[in-house]
Amino acid sequence: MVYSMIEPVGEKTIERIGNLGRFSRFFARAAQASLVSCCSPRSYPGIWTQMHLIGVRSVPVVMITGAFVGMVLAIQAYDQLAGMGLEERLGVLINIAVVKELGPVLAAVMLAGRVGGALTAELGTMNVTEQISAVQSMGTDPIKHLVAPRVLACLVLTPFLIIYADLLGILGGYFVSVIQLKINSRAYWDFSAQSVELWDLNMGIVKGFFFGGAIAVISCYKGFTCREGAQGVGQACTEAFVGSFISILALNFIFAVVMKAIYSTFWPIQSLL
Amino acid sequence: MAKYVDKDDGIIVVRNLVKMFDRRVVLEGISLALEKGKTTAIIGPSGCGKTVLMKHMIALERPTSGEVYFKGRRIDELNERQLAAIRTQYGFCFQKGALFDSLTVYENIIFPIVQHRKITDWKAIDDLVKNKLAMVGMDGYQEHLPASLSGGQQKRVALARAIALNPEVILYDEPTTGLDPIRSDIINELILKLQRQLQITSIVVTHDMRSAYKIGDRIIMLHDGKVIADGDADHIRNHPHSIVQQFVHGEVNEADLAALRLGGTKFETQYLPEDFE
Predict the structure, then answer these.
(1) What residues of chain B, 244 to 273, have a C-beta less than 8 Å from chain A?
(2) Which of A101, A242, B51, B149 has a C-alpha 20 to 30 A away from that of B108?
(3) Given CB atoms, is B22 within the 8 Å cutoff of chain A?
(4) Do B98 and A133 touch (CB under 8 A)?
């Protein structure tokens, strides 16, 4: 009885450790191949193509995400601040929230769905139709040929996509605050400019580098280890999205703790309102 | 039972090869030496480990134990970078072609070339692609995407891609499966033509006996992860082993027929002799 309870737990644990080991090896090989590809002009056309597919085509969805985040924040926060007579400081709250947290995280989540899903589905289908084995059988490293360009495109372009999300978030917040809620435009920008520092903006963008890397490596790994059949590809896509999403949230938390410690070492905490 | 083979006995040598997936034994101590310039057909029922054996020959699978040699050099222990140079001497024709569906026929064929050579003369590459496609009767399809080709055409393009680097060995994974008899025969003729023209060593995994008899200088039958027959077409045709006879004649045995008649879910190995009395 006790054994029958312990056995599945042990089996699952061993399986999880095995998966973690396989993922770590994949991660190391992807990192190594990406570094090599950076220095090899022959791989630039492949990276360029992926940049177009991953980056350029994601601009509209990321901008829409950012705009709605900014607009919703303005609507939700206005009543509370107006109640205290602080409505002119609405821009502080919106812009800090957008550039530090919501812009980067929601843009990354949107990318996990759009880009991560597409990467896993594409590589998963290549895997089940033996195209990855075909690459390997022709003496080409599939990690270098297929994973490295995708990882590099995500690493380089996620921060830029976050800039787009931030920009539209700020404009969306401004639009609702100034045009709809009739807050004084000059006061809105002045208070925002006093409170939002370059540090906040930069941290949001730097996060994008890590989020992009996590999305690309997890999605490619799930595609490479996808099981056969339509169900296998579907399951791999789901797992890739869930894995990327959780990684984004976890990385964001780690980043917040580390960056706060660094910031408070150099500058004292200031009140925003 | 497994005979001793030396690493220099053939262009590809497999020694005491054992492969397990989880706890399931797929190959059970296989030893083979494949001769240069000959066509070897590996036959056997579905799931007997034919494709797994062939993938070991190009190190796409790594053995649980045992050794694989190519031209006397052990390849199963090499890393991916070391294997790259070895693999350019192979061509691998996958069961469903495995053409890159986002690339045109032309781009598919030049793929192995651009990966391993610095191209300066594109005119020569155009001619090479034309030549390779002409060999498989597909010249003129350069700009087509794989999705617009029939199954047989895709296999022919896959064959053209496999010979793009002028390999010494071509591995064919079920080249005639899913094709009608006429297109199957076209593929058989192509395999024979390539072997005659280019003196390529061919290894063909198939369960199409017509194809195996036609193209195989040597036929090896696998069953339950072991070699149960090995010889030329006549040897296999007249082999005394009942499983070989059943397979080559494509006949179901009495025990399985009885199982079907009984309508149960048990099969031969699960029945007791009294079930059939």
Answers:
(1) none
(2) B51
(3) no
(4) yes
Query: What amino acid occupies position B247?
Result: F
Same domain, B5 and B79: yes
Whether A272 maps to a domain, the answer reads: no
Of B87, B95, B101, the CB nearest to A137: B87
Distance between CA atoms of residues A127 and A225, nearest Å: 8
What contacts A232, CB < 8 A, 6 or more positions away? Answer: A124, A128, A226
Residue A169, domain member (yes or no)? yes
Residue of A nearest to B54 (CA): A137
Number of separate domains in chain B: 2
Task: Read off the pLDDT of residues A18-46 as tens digits, 9 standing for 90 and up.
Answer: 999 999 999 999 999 999 998 888 889 88
Task: Verify that B70 and B96 share a domain, yes or no.
Answer: no
Residue B253 within any structural domain of the chain: no
pTM of the model: 0.85
Pairing of strands B169-173, B201-205: parallel
Q: Please tell me the distance from the alpha carbon of residue B11 to that of residue B199, in angstroms, as a whole number.
A: 13
CATH code where residue B69 lies: 3.40.50.300
- Number of domains into which chain A is organized: 1
Contact A133, B98 (CB under 8 A): yes
Q: Is residue B211 part of a domain?
A: yes
ipTM over 0.95: no
A-to-B residue pairs, Cβ atoms closer than 8 angstroms: 53
Which chain B residues have a beta carbon less than 8 Å from that of A130? 94-96, 98
SS3 state of residue B93: strand
Closest CB from B55, B87, B100 relative to A139: B87
Same domain (yes/no): B207, B78: yes
Strands (E), chain B: 12-21, 24-34, 39-43, 65-70, 73-74, 90-93, 169-173, 201-205, 218-223, 226-231
| B87 in reach of chain A (CB within 8 A) | yes
Question: Among partner residues B80, B87, B95, which is closest to A138 by beta-carbon distance?
Answer: B87
The range of the structural domain enclosing residue A189 comes to 2-266
Residue of A nearest to B22 (CA): A15
- Read off the pLDDT band of B271 (50, 70, 90): low
A220 CB-near residues (< 8 Å, 6+ apart): A26, A30, A119, A120, A123, A146, A147, A150, A151
Distance of CA A248 to the CA centre of its chain: 6
Q: What is the pLDDT of residues B24-46, one digit of tens each?
A: 889 988 999 998 888 999 998 88
Which domain range does residue B133 map to?
A: 91-166
Eight-class DSSP state of B230: E
What is the rounded CA–CA span in Å between residue A199 and residue A205?
Answer: 10
Helix (H) or strand (E) holding A230: helix A229-266
